[in-house]
Amino acid sequence: MKKICFVFVVICSAYLLLLSGCSKDGDGKLEMKEPRKELNELPQGKNWFEMDISDPEKFNQQMNESE
Fold first, then answer.
1. Would the pTM of this model clear 0.70, i.e. be above it?
2. Alpha carbons 2 and 4: distance in angstroms, whole number
3. Which DSSP state fits 47?
4. Which of 1, 7, 48, 64 has its Cα between 20 and 30 A from that of 26?
5. Where does the signal peptide begin and end (predicted)?
6. Is 62 exposed, middle or buried (0-12, 13-18, 19+ CB in 10 A)?
7. What is the mean pLDDT of the chain?
């Protein structure tokens, strides 16, 4: 019984030490992520159905224009 308790304390101590050093400065605080951007704030995507892929030069030009 005492051996199981000792193993439990060792495991809990290891987790506590590992989790306390999660952030860069080691203060143990969690950092929040940036909120997701709204769709109107995201850059316009490529419309693959309107691109002409039969001519490689024209396709490269269309790819460069959309960036």
1. no
2. 5
3. -
4. 7
5. 1-25
6. middle
7. 75
Amino acid at 31: E
What six digits make up the tokens of 4? 């199981």
30 residue type, one letter: L
Q: What is the spatial distance between Cα 53 and Cα 10, in angstroms, rounded to a whole number?
A: 62
CA dihedral 50, 51, 55, 58 (to 10 degrees): 120
What is the C-alpha separation between 35 and 48, in angstroms, rounded? 28
Q: What's the start-to-end Cα distance of the chain, in Å?
A: 66
**Residue 27: what pLDDT?**
60
The neighbour count for residue 57, using CB atoms within 10 Å, is: 7
